[in-house]
Specification:
The complex is a heterotrimer of chains A (89), B (256) and C (83). Helix content of chain A is 80%, strand content 0%. Chain A has 89 residues and is an all-alpha fold. The longest helix of chain A has 26 residues, at 30-55. Chain A starts with a helix and ends in a 7-residue tail after the last helix. Chain B has 256 residues and is mainly α. Chain B has one domain (36-249). In chain B, strands 1-2 form a two-stranded antiparallel ribbon. In chain B, a hairpin with a 3-residue loop joins β1 and β2. Chain B is globular, with a radius of gyration of 23 Å. The N and C termini of chain C lie far apart (48 Å). Chain C is built from three helices and no strands. In chain C, α2 packs antiparallel against α3 (53-78). Chain C has one domain (2-78). The chains are: A mainly alpha (89), B mainly alpha (256), C mainly alpha (83). Chains in contact: A-B, A-C, B-C.
């Protein structure tokens, strides 16, 4: 039962990532693409966690835990640039 | 070089580079195949029945660090140090940490909270690197990301409130380097003092060279010799180095 | 299972080629920086699927967190549009 749920959610997240990749390539403005990159990143984090659970290896879950902490930072840089301020002030 | 000629050159460049990469990928062994390097690792660096050669660390990358790959890491550290010294020489003198607004209050509060989480995960990745994936350079990059997030979301002037400025960052970096250097030459000093054989960068005792750092932490937990202190020194060096570079690059080149 | 992982790796690398072409041809340098960050994330996923979590950690930390910051600081100095 758990295997079926895991595989189903894996497929759902891979579909999400694929759709977001389309938006990242086509999306007309920069914020569109940045949000698409955020969705891709968090989807990949969940996919890495699901792969770690399926394969039963605790070494693979470490990376998905810690990666989720700083994926948002690229959006922070771009937002700071588009505010028109000097970085660091 | 304008118009269709530039586009054609770009297409040719991308096509040739990707074909070279595909050709390089064809020579890889299959996934799941134990390569000769892996066999060497299994026989030598983490083999409980062959403790003459092991390095007492279950993680392959950090297990190879001292007894097998020490000089590699040493020269990487030296290259990084020289790069930071060059950047600091170019931009020194403009270093002024002024406090200004920063971003909105939501981003500022979030950045302060996430700073603690990121710094904690940097220390965890570094300290537990003898068992789980990680290491000094990884932890240092993550530490630099924590400080860069603070600089971008709040401002440069917020750093002195956290007891970090350029001088203190330089001092912390040099303390990390001195830790690495001191642990490197301790076996040589021991060898000169006692008359027995010991090598620079030696971690675990060998049959003919009895000097070694402690193998076990407590009774059963593997300590990996002194891999943890050298990783901590590398982490402080890399993290503070990236922070100094980012601070110096964001300085205004002239007052206006 | 191994064949599936190989297929996924091939698809990710093909998408990386598409992103590289977009980075080369675009005139908007901020867009190029964003796409380079996306490519860093995809390459980190390839490293993860090849069971090298160490390299994936340093790839995401340096490729998304640090080099993007340096590029954007540079863009603030030289301007966003390429001639």
């Amino acid at each position: 039962m758990l295997d079926i749920i895991l595989l189903f959610s894996l497929g759902m997240f891979i579909t999400t990532i694929t759709l977001s990749m389309y938006r990242m390539v086509v999306g007309p403005t920069i914020p569109d693409r940045m949000l698409a990159l955020d969705v891709i990143s968090y989807g990949l984090t969940v996919v890495m966690g699901i792969i770690a659970v399926i394969s039963g290896s605790p070494y693979l879950i470490v990376i998905s835990f810690s990666l989720a902490l700083w994926f948002f930072i690229g959006a922070l840089y771009v937002a700071r640039y588009m505010e028109g301020e000097q970085i660091g002030d | 070089m304008s118009g269709w000629r530039g586009s054609l050159l770009g297409v040719l460049f991308v096509a040739s580079m990707s074909s070279i990469l595909v050709y390089a990928f064809l020579g890889y062994p299959e996934l799941g195949f134990v390569r000769p390097l892996g066999e060497f690792y299994l026989f030598n660096t983490y083999n409980f029945e062959n403790q003459d050669w092991w390095s007492a660390s279950p993680n392959a990358v950090t297990g190879l660090l001292w007894d097998y790959r020490g000089y590699d890491t040493l020269y990487e550290t030296m290259v990084f140090y020289v790069g930071i010294v060059a950047v600091a020489m170019f931009f020194e003198g403009h270093a002024k940490l002024t406090k200004t607004g920063g971003m909105t209050v939501i981003v500022r509060a979030t950045a302060r909270m996430v700073f603690v989480f990121i710094l904690t995960s940097a220390f965890a990745i570094t300290i537990f690197s003898i068992k789980t994936p990680g290491g000094g350079f990884q932890g240092g990059s993550i530490m630099a990301i924590a400080y860069i997030a603070i600089i971008v979301a709040l401002s440069k002037g917020f750093l002195p409130e956290m007891n970090i400025d350029l001088e203190k960052a330089h001092i912390a970096k040099i303390i990390g380097l001195a830790l690495i250097a001191g642990l490197t030459i301790v076996p040589v000093v021991y060898s000169l003092a006692s008359g027995s054989v010991a090598y620079a960068l030696q971690n675990q005792p060998k049959a003919w060279a009895p000097f070694g750092y402690p193998t076990y932490l407590g009774l059963t937990s593997l300590s990996g010799g002194l891999i943890i202190p050298i990783q901590l020194g590398e982490m402080v060096h890399v993290g503070m180095g990236f922070t100094i570079m980012f601070l110096l690059l964001t300085m205004k080149e002239r007052e206006d | 299972m191994i064949a599936t992982i190989e297929l996924v790796i091939d698809l990710l690398l093909a998408f990386c080629v598409v992103l590289t072409a977009a980075i080369v041809f675009t005139k908007d340098l901020l867009l190029a920086v964003v796409l380079a960050g996306a490519e860093g994330v995809l390459v980190a996923t390839v490293f993860y699927l090849l069971l090298a979590p160490d390299i994936a950690l340093v790839q995401v930390a340096a490729g998304v967190g640090i080099s993007t910051a340096f590029f954007i600081v540079g863009l603030r100095k030289i301007g966003r549009r390429e001639e």
